[in-house]
Amino acid sequence: MSAQVNVKGNKNGLVRRIALAGGCLAILGGATAKLVANRNAIETESRAMSTWVERTPVRVVAPEQVTAREVVSSPGTVEPVSEVRILARVAGKMVSAPFDVGAKVGSGTVLATIQADGLEERLAMAQAALGKSRRDRERLESARAYGGVSAQDAELSELSLKQALKEHADVLRERSDQSVKSPLDGCISSRRAELGAYVNPGDELYVVSSCRDVKVVAQASQDDLGRLKPGAKVTVRFDIASDRPLAGKIARIAPKPDQIGSYRVEVAIPQGREVVPQLGATAQVEMEATASAGAWRLEIPRHCLVGSALFPQVFVVRGDSVVLCPIVIGARDGERLVVTAGLSQDDRVVVDGQINIQGGTKVRVLK
Asked: Is the whole model's pTM more than 0.90, yes or no?
């Protein structure tokens, strides 16, 4: 009986050990499977991270839709803000005219000297007449104290003195007008004075123009007139320095057309510049005009551009790589380009990193 009990106990112990061993194996198998799964996930993530890191980093922008800014272009010419026609005030011979076109002159500078006809003789006669009138008046004043002068004689004496004073002043003014002076600081923009020539009052001798205060004059057609307003922004590109444009504003638009139907548009440009455009210099004038209702355009930063302005292209991100896309540029607005074809507002255009990529390059977009 005792032997049977021992055999049964041994069997029960063996079963418990086998069950315990099976449980341990099951736990170990589950842990192993989890470790394998984790390792596979880590390897997959590592490969993805490695692929992401290996892609070329770039920054992108979306084309910006803005209200269209239309431009009216016209040739322009530099003109002075102010100019004065210098006219002869006396008749006579031109005995001095030392300044030529382009010469700079100051206010009060004697530009020419005219020798007026018979001036010295007329001055002597005027002085003699004035002296006689004064003596006559003195005699009348002395006689009036004794009642020997009528009211009519006194009035005639007074009128005679006033006339003599006027004639004497006129001759003195004529003598002063022999010296033709500049009324402002500027430069000679036109000369008609010829040494030795005979001139009459009203004859033009010079035109003196402001040298530093200049404006640019452009033209506008009847169709464009309604879209241009005083104060509108203007870009002026001088033919001799087109890479250094000047910003200005429309100062005045002529109310009436010229003989060919064009309207004169005066453009004010900043004063106080170190380099002043020469009078008569030519330029291309781009005047900001009122856009049509609902008009808009796409703009991108200028440094998105790849290649030359003749064949403009940009990199556009499509999926995980880039595509080199040709575009059409409408105009330049400072540091931005107006794109008229080749892009949509939803495109992502590479703005930084173009030097490291080409068409088809895998990229990662930096935030």
From this structure: no
Q: Dump the DSSP string for 215-275.
A: EEEEEE-HHHHTT--TT-EEEEEETTEEEEEEEEEEEEE-SS--TTS-EEEEEE--SS-SS
Distance of alpha carbon 104 from alpha carbon 208, whole angstroms: 9
Cβ neighbours for 276, distance < 8 A, ≥ 6 positions apart: 211, 212, 214
Structure confidence by residue, pLDDT tens digits, 77-128 = 998 888 899 999 999 999 999 999 989 999 999 999 999 888 888 888 888 8
Poorest-pLDDT segment among 19-33, 35-49, 66-80? 35-49
| C-alpha to C-alpha distance for 80 and 185, rounded to whole angstroms | 12
**Distance in angstroms (rounded) separating the CA atoms of residues 200 and 92:** 7
Among the listed residues 186, 217, 180, 181, the one whose alpha carbon sits nearest the alpha carbon of residue 82: 186
8 Å CB contact between 119 and 171? yes
**Amino acid identity at 238:** F
- Residue 219, sorted as left (phi over 0), alpha (psi -120 to 50) or beta, turns out to be beta
